[in-house]
Amino acid sequence: MVTVNIACIEELDLVRVSFVGEWSMKNEVPTATSIIWEIKSKTKKCSSVAFDVSKLKKWDTSFISFTLKFIKFLKGCKFKFDPNCLPVEMLNIINLTNASRDVSSRDIKRKARPAGFWKTLFEKCREGILDFGEDLSFIGELVIESCRTFFGRSKFRFKQFFPIVEEVGIDALPIVLLISFLVGLILAFVSIIQLRKFGAGIYCADLVGIAMMREMACLMTAVIMSGRTGAAFAATIGTMVVNEEIDALQTAGFSRFGFIIIPRLFALVIMMPLLCIFSGVIGICGGMFASGAMLDINISQYLMQTKAAVSLNDVFCGLSKSVVFAILIASIGCLKGIRCGRDAEAVGKVTTSAVVTSITSIIVADAVFALIFNAIGI
C-alpha cells in the first residue's frame, strides 16, 4: 500500500508530492490523474511539482511508468516537473526510456518516407542535420573525457587497456609487415624499370625510402587498421548496444566513454606510430630485396643511399599523420558502434559504415596534410 501526501510550499512556488510505502505492481498504487486533480484542488498559485521518494521503501518499473505518465499529464495542466528530488538511478532510467522513445519515433519516421522529390530531399537534409548534431555531441564528450583521463581526473582501467593494446598492436603486426614488405617491393620494382633506362637505378633507394617513411607506411597501416581494428571497434560496441550492456552501464552511473571508448582510443593512438615505424622499415627492406635482385647493388650501398635521402622531416611527417589517422579510426569506429540499432542486422551495417567512413576520412586527411606540408615547406 502506498500513501500520498501533498504539500504546497508557496514560498518556493512548489508542490511537494511525498510517497510512503512500497510501490510495486502487486500493491495498490495511486493513479497520475487522481494526484493531479488533488494538486489542482489544493493550489492555484504554485507552478512546479516535485516528488519526495525518501520514504518510499521499494519501487519497481511501474513507478517509472507512473512518473513518465505524470510528467506527460502535467504538461497539459501547465505545471512544471522538478526532477532534482529524484534519485540518480531513477533519473537514469527515465532518461534512457525517453531516449529510446525518441530513437524509436525517429526510426519510424525514417521508414515512412514521404512521397515526392522535395519532401524526400527535405527529410534527408533533416536527418543529416540530426546526425551531424549527434556527431558534434559525441566529439565534444570524447574530447572532455580524454582531457579528464589525461590529467588524471577520471579513473583509467589498465586491466581493460592492455588487452586492447595487444589486440590493436601486437596482433596486427604480421599483416602490417607483410603488406608493407610487398608495397616496398612493388615501389622498387616500378622505379627500377624506369630509372634503369637512365643509368640511375641506385636512386630507387631514395624513392622507396622517402615514399615509405613519409607517405605509404602511415597510409597503408591506416587502411589496414580501418578494416581490422575500426571494424572490430564498431562490431564490439554495436553488439554491446544490441545486448543493452551500454544502457546497463549508464543506468549504473558509469561513463560509456571512460569504460569503453577512451581505452580503445588511447591504445590505437599509442600503437599506430609504432606500427608506422615498423611498416616503413620493412618497406625499405622490401625495396632492398628488389634492388638486390634486379640491380648490382649490395646491402650497404642501398642503406647508405637511403640514409642520405631520408631526413627527420620525412619521419616526422609519417608519425604525425599516423597519430591523426589513429584518432580518426578509433573515433569513427566507436561512434558507429554507439549509434548502432537494436538488431543483429544493424551491427553489420555499422561495421561496413565504419570501414568506409574511416578510409574516406583517412584519404581526405592525407590530402590536407599534403597541402599543409607543401605550404610550410616540409
What does this structure look like?
The chain has 378 residues and is of the alpha/beta class. The chain folds into three domains: 2-86, STAS domain (Transcription Regulator spoIIAA, 2-Layer Sandwich), CATH 3.30.750; 102-150; 158-376, no CATH class. Helix content is 73%, strand content 7%. The chain has helices at 32-42, 61-76, 88-111, 117-150, 158-170, 173-195, 204-242, 245-251, 256-294, 299-309, 312-338, 344-376; strands at residues 2-9, 14-22, 48-52, 56-58, 80-82. The longest helix has 39 residues, at 204-242. The protein is elongated, with a radius of gyration of 30 Å. The model is unreliable at 103-112 (pLDDT under 50).
Question: What's this entry about, in short?
Answer:
The protein is an alpha/beta fold and 378 residues long. Helices cover 73% and strands 7% of the residues.
Compile the SSE list and pairings.
Elements: E1 2-9, E2 14-22, H1 32-42, E3 48-52, E4 56-58, H2 61-76, E5 80-82, H3 88-111, H4 117-150, H5 158-170, H6 173-195, H7 204-242, H8 245-251, H9 256-294, H10 299-309, H11 312-338, H12 344-376
Parallel strand pairs: 2-3, 2-4, 3-5
Antiparallel strand pairs: 1-2
Helix pairs in contact: 4-9, 5-9, 6-7, 6-9, 7-9, 7-10, 7-11, 7-12, 9-10, 9-11, 11-12
Q: What labels would you give this structure?
A:
elongated, 3 domains, single chain, Transcription Regulator spoIIAA
Tell me the Rg in angstroms. Answer: 30 Å
Main beta sheet = 5 strands, mixed
The total domain count is 3
The total count of strands amounts to 5
Order of helices and strands: EEHEEHEHHHHHHHHHH
Alpha-beta content class: alpha/beta
Rounded to the nearest angstrom, the distance between the terminal CA atoms is: 77 Å
**Shape from CA axes?**
elongated
Supply the number of helical segments. Answer: 12
Q: Runs with pLDDT <50, length 5+? A: 103-112
How much helical structure, as a percent, in the residues?
A: over 70%
Strand content: 5-15%
Mean pLDDT: 82
